[in-house]
Amino acid sequence: MSTGRTSSRLSAAASAVLVLVVAAACTNPTPDNGGADAGQVTVRLAEYAEYATLNPLDAMFGITSKIYDGLYAVAADGAMEPDLATGEPEPDQSLTRWTVRIQDGVGFSDGTALDSADVVATYRTLIDPAYASPLASSFEFLTDVSAPDATTVEFVLSEPYAPFPSTLTVGIAPSELLTGTVLDSTLNREPVGSGPYRLTEWRAGESLTLEASDTYRGERPDVDRLVIAFVPDENVRAQRLRAGDFDGAQLPPRAAAELEGVDDLTVFTNTSADYRAVTLPQGVPAFQDPAVRLALNLAVDREALVEGILRGYGRAAATPFTPAQGAAYDADAQFAHDPAEAEALLDAAGWTAGADGTRAQDGVPLQFTIMYFAEDTLRRDLALAVASDLSEIGADVEVEAVDRPAAAAGMNTKAFVLGGGDRPYDPDTQVYTALHSSFAPYDPEDAYTNPSGYSDPRADALLDTARRSADPDVRTQAYLDLQEVLMANPPMITLVTLEHTYAARGLDEYSGVEHVVEPHEHGVAWGPWWNVEEWKAVP
Amino acid sequence: MTSEQRMTAGLVAAPPWRAPATMAGLSSVTHPPRTPRWPYAAGAVIILYALAVPIVASATGWWGGADTGAVDYVAGVTAPSWAHPFGTDVAGRDLFVRCARALQVSLLAAAVGAAVAALLGTALGAASAMLGGRADRILMRGVDGVAAVPHLLLGIIIATVYRGSLWTVVLVVALTHWTGTTRLVRGEVLSLRERAWVRAATSQGYTRRQVLRHHVLPHVGAQVGVATALLVPHAVWHETTLTFLGLGMPPHQASLGSLIELAQQSVVSGAWWTLAAPAGLLVAATVCLGAALHRGARHAV
Amino acid sequence: MTVPSAARSSSRAHAVRRVVLRRALWAVPLLLGVSALVFLLASLTPADGTSGFLGARGEFTNTQTRAAVGELLDQGNWWQACLAWWQGALTGDWGTSTILRAPVADTLAARIPWTALVMTAGLLLGALLAVPLAVAAARRPESLAARVLTGVAWALSAAPAYIVGLGLLLVFALGLGWLPAGGLAPPGEPLTVATVASHALLPALAVALSQVPWIALHLHAALIGARSSDAVLAARLRGLPPRTVTSRHVLPVAVVPLLALLGTRLPELVVGAALVETVFSWPGLGQAMVDAAVGRDLALLAGTTVCLTVLVLLGNLLADAALVLVDPRVRADDL
């Protein structure tokens, strides 16, 4: 065999492969994104996952609020303030007809004007089952939207619903683009809004870039560009932040705590209405006894959860009410960690320890499983810690990792580490579906509402009173009374509310950096950057 | 002939049961003529560690006692010490005992998966060879098809359906690794069929099944046993990988994969031992068991 | 030996064509089978795409909304869904990803080049690292250096690619700060060949290191075998210098099994790339596939699976075609 010939064939093959590599590198889209122009201010952030969509009908808060304006917006410390609206919504006597007046002369980033027809189209599409917006859940009472004139919108509800204004944060999209479904809408990847920023580049799987919009009705932001990279691994996020790749990132408490004071990084925390609880479903016979539910609540060391798992970034909670609910929150409603009292309660109720140390009453063992979402490390840690605490007072507790379908299927027979607080800006949206007995019957298609199957007539009455009253004082009092009921007859073991933790640098170069109350969701559209468009550079 | 078969046909001296990425293919080419004895000793130490440490811990209370599920997040990670030779993890659990438990679980999942793969492979291989003709051709095309898809790719698809338990790992290992055994058994059976004593049995009027059971399978058994044993270390690798991707073992269940996944949280903040212990064990177990098994296999065959 | 005649090289080309044709025919049922498996297996679970579509919001979604989403995603039973998917795929519409809310074809088009880049670069880098090592070790097979080399290669082959990747990340990116830790380019900067190359280096190195043991050990064995072959002994007897013997007589013989090996290593290479991608937040197919599996996104899962399988088949084919070209002993009918 001719070796010279062989090597030349080999080198030919090798160069063919090389050409392929180079071609692969060169044919990749390298769109001209304008680069970093001199004098442009860029803030680079690291997000924990790629956004599924930028469609405002698929994501109510967060990143879409940078691109879109809603009728109302979340403001500092969790208040609601008019955004496109010119004032508070005006309800009629029955709280079923609400009128909102909007600003004149607002334009979308594609140059078209925003008027009441766009608002009507947005909300009509939202409640259209064919469009399949996941946000429709928040608008089950909305039956019709209409526009008497170009700057007035009227909402018609099927029931009196006092918390309605807090739901009007959905970003308004141009009516002509609200076609198709939430799955294939062009708005998913090519958003057109009236907000302070517009999308200029989206590198699939890697990052996206927002730039200040020229058509924004407000003052042009001092921060011209936001670059948001998707970095799923929290360690990599933390270390790249430290290395100077980013100006900020959302980080879990442990990772954030590591960065406090390192170089020029600071930890920024926002309070949230994001609570975690262990459900106590009525399908477990032991949980039908209120004494058991109370005893289990006393047996959990919540301070240890806050210190050990949340690294201090959170607080103990006894009910789904959190400081985010303002005056409606009763700070004194707390369970002490008292295992001795818990054991005494159980003894008195006839739950006595057997030979193996597990308590039982009339042959019914105090035995159950706690489910948690397999991919959620926080819930895993909470489940393990709660199981550990409850074992010490004679409960036989197993822990099980589940995916979402399995969680829904097991919701009436197994305890579950629940997350809550998706819409915290009114106490009603924070707690109603978790506690009202109308949601108690188990439905695998609707497993997360009232997952314990809790039913207490006093609680129902207070929830309904607050929902139907226009008087803020009446509502606040009803919620305070409700917390008393929940302490005496706990629906679940509410564990903690989280503080969302972020690490950032250069925040002191701006004025206007403020705290906000965050919902269940988090990410770099929250944190200090929730109002980045209002930041002013300090000269 | 597919390229994988060609590999096994002598261009490179790899045994015919070589699954890609098993130690088997490597060992045949890397063992110097005088194989050292250390793999036996090291393999024995690793097995002993996995089996004995949890028992000793629960009997004596050493190393924080048995791994019962009690956690202490406030204490959290502590560095290796006499009380905790491998340190503790983020939940304050002793890693010396927990790693032993993890090794048990991973080896169990791997062994059961390998055994099921061997059973499946033997049944299909024997059936293919004994049936012959069109059935044989169809079956072997199927084998080529499954073998052409990367194991992990197939594993991820399977784990999509049955996510998050020991049985996921068993199923994935079994359903992706039967092809090697099938080819091996088919080849052996085909060659055995031509041997004089098998022919004699056939000509005396024994049914195909009887011949298979009494004359063919016993001879194939040793080969299959070796192939299965060699698959175990590779299956451990599969367990850790699937679990690392969040598709294998449940995260609270001790396994090498879940320990490595958990360690990711603490390792960057300096708790190197949380990763070093399970990852070191993974490498040690794969290398030592692989070498010992292969050496044993060479003596056995 | 004389230079091959024109007739011989045309028969080689003919042989390559036959290999290509046979493999292309074989790929059709294989791809159909793989995609059918995705849909079949997914139909066996109680879960559908709805929970993946809703993601974290699933906890806060009521019955009516869930039903509307379910209706939107409904594709009929598994073979109807699979057929519909193939019908679309043949016309360029690969369906819509439920977790990314975007056409699968767009996602694949954006990601395939990156996966191909890391894979090929990793393979080349692996060969570049492994070949000199193997040659050096084969020179004195009994020396300490050769033993250390094979020992290290063994240990390395037992370490999964993601552990290798994590190690590289910790040392070179986070510890020493020599190389970027992830992504395609520094945040906010345009993609250029230079930035992409520097960002691809660590993932490619991780892929390479997971391949080095295999290439090195097999080449090492083949070199030792080739060294004792008649041709090499004859060359030595003729008094050719050792360097010439190695480069002209030993290496070419040993390269043939190496090429065959590269073909069979491709499935593992693809898998290694998928794992490495998740560590380096590299926007390739592997990461999309894991996400699709976790989110039960059938269209995306089928799309990525088919693409990865095609990449594997293509690689196999390239290796075999190269084999036919370089080694006259290999007949096309054997492949």
For the record, the count of structural domains of chain C works out to 1
The low-confidence parts of chain C are none
Tell me the overall shape of chain C: globular
Question: How many strands, which pairing sense, and closed or not: the largest β-sheet of chain C?
Answer: 2 strands, antiparallel
Annotated CATH homologous superfamily of chain C = MetI-like
Give the quaternary arrangement of the chains: heterotrimer
Question: What would you say this structure looks like, in words?
Answer:
The complex is a heterotrimer of chains A (539), B (301) and C (335). Helices cover 27% and strands 23% of the residues of chain A. Chain A has 539 residues and is an alpha+beta fold. In chain A, strands 1, 10, 11, 12, 13, 14, 15, 19, 20, 21 and 22 form an 11-stranded mixed sheet that branches. In chain A, strands 4-5-9-8 form a 4-stranded antiparallel sheet, with helices on one face. Residues 1-36 of chain A have low confidence and may be disordered. By secondary structure, chain B is mostly helical. Chain B has a single domain (38-63, 88-300), classed as MetI-like fold (Orthogonal Bundle). Mean pLDDT of chain B is 78; it is low at 1-34. Chain C has one domain (11-334): Orthogonal Bundle (MetI-like fold). Helix content of chain C is 76%, strand content 1%. Chain C contains 12 helices and 2 strands, in the order ααααββαααααααα. Chain C has a two-stranded antiparallel sheet with strand order 1-2. Chain C is globular. Chain C starts with 5 loop residues before the first helix and ends in a 9-residue tail after the last helix. The mean pLDDT of chain C is 81. At the A-C interface, helix 1, strand 1, strand 12, helix 4 and helix 10 of A face helix 2, helix 3, strand 2, helix 5 and helix 7 of C.
Task: Please render the helix and strand layout as text.
The complex is a heterotrimer of chains A (539), B (301) and C (335).
Chain A: H1 3-27, E1 42-47, H2 64-67, E2 72-74, E3 80-82, E4 90-91, E5 97-101, E6 106-107, E7 113-114, H3 116-126, E8 142-149, E9 152-157, E10 197-203, E11 207-212, E12 225-230, H4 234-243, E13 248-250, H5 253-259, E14 265-279, H6 290-299, H7 302-309, E15 314-316, H8 339-348, E16 352-353, E17 359-361, E18 364-365, E19 367-373, H9 377-391, E20 396-402, H10 404-410, E21 415-420, H11 427-435, H12 457-468, H13 472-488, E22 492-505, E23 510-511, E24 536-537
Parallel strand pairs in A: 1-12, 1-13, 19-20, 19-21
Antiparallel strand pairs in A: 2-3, 4-5, 5-9, 6-7, 8-9, 10-11, 11-12, 13-22, 14-21, 14-22, 15-22, 16-17, 17-18, 23-24
Helix pairs in contact in A: 6-8, 12-13
Chain B: H1 3-11, H2 23-30, H3 38-60, H4 95-131, H5 133-148, H6 151-161, H7 166-193, H8 196-203, H9 208-244, H10 256-267, H11 272-300
Helix pairs in contact in B: 2-11, 3-4, 3-11, 4-5, 4-7, 4-9, 4-10, 4-11, 5-7, 6-7, 7-9, 8-9, 9-10, 9-11, 10-11
Chain C: H1 6-43, H2 49-54, H3 63-73, H4 78-90, E1 96-97, E2 102-103, H5 104-139, H6 144-158, H7 161-175, H8 193-227, H9 230-237, H10 242-279, H11 285-294, H12 298-326
Antiparallel strand pairs in C: 1-2
